[in-house]
């Protein structure tokens, strides 16, 4: 089994359901938020835990698997998203940033958010094709 399939299987069946459920029930896990996209095929809301990349009216995500991540493909089909950050839902528009320096982005995020350094290390360690996603929140 290749790295992508092994990591994806673990996240899909174990890691993400645990973290997502905890965050949706109000438990705060430093360094994490919940991203809600609309399924590109189903049209239904899809939620996935992501690193807490809040920076003012902008939210940054570094996707471990780039365009292979379902939430990235959902964003490319419909860029309107919501993010649950520290217990509050915020709506915005997402865009993939193929030319962004993902390692520099993670360094900046790690300096600004408690818990983000661990998340950034996990993304780098388990990631196969890093890609930055920027979300601009509605005002």
Care to give the gist of this entry?
With 139 residues, the protein is an alpha+beta fold. It contains 4 helices and 7 strands. It has helices at residues 3-24, 70-77, 102-112, 116-126, and strands at residues 32-38, 45-51, 54-55, 58-63, 80-85, 88-97, 131-137.
Number of helices: 4
Question: Might you state the CATH topology name?
Answer: Pnp Oxidase, Chain A
What is the β-strand count? 7
Biggest sheet overview: 7 strands, antiparallel
Oligomer: single chain
The CATH class assignment is Mainly Beta
Q: Strand order across the biggest sheet?
A: 2-1-5-6-7-4-3
CATH superfamily membership? Electron Transport, Fmn-binding Protein, Chain A
Can you describe this structure?
- It is a single chain.
- The chain is α+β, with helices and mostly antiparallel strands and 139 residues long.
- It has a single domain (3-137), classed as Roll (Pnp Oxidase, Chain A).
- It has four helices and seven strands, in the order αββββαββααβ.
- It has helices spanning 3-24, 70-77, 102-112, 116-126, and strands spanning 32-38, 45-51, 54-55, 58-63, 80-85, 88-97, 131-137.
- It has a seven-stranded antiparallel beta sheet with strand order 2-1-5-6-7-4-3, sandwiched between helices.
- Helix 3 (102-112) packs antiparallel against helix 4.
- It starts with a helix and ends with a strand.
């Amino acid at each position: 089994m290749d790295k992508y399939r092994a990591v994806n299987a673990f996240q899909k069946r174990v890691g993400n359901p645990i973290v997502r459920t905890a965050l949706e029930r109000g438990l705060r896990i430093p360094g994490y938020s919940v991203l809600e996209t609309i399924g590109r095929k189903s049209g239904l809301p899809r939620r996935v835990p992501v690193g807490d990349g809040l920076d003012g009216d902008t939210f940054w995500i570094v996707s471990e698997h780039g365009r292979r991540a379902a939430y990235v493909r959902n964003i490319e089909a419909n860029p309107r998203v919501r993010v649950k950050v520290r217990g509050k839902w915020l709506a915005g528009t997402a865009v993939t940033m193929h030319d962004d320096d993902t390692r520099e982005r993670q360094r900046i995020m790690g300096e600004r958010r408690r818990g983000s350094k661990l998340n950034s290390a996990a993304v780098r360690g388990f990631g196969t094709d890093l890609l930055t996603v920027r979300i601009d929140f509605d005002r």
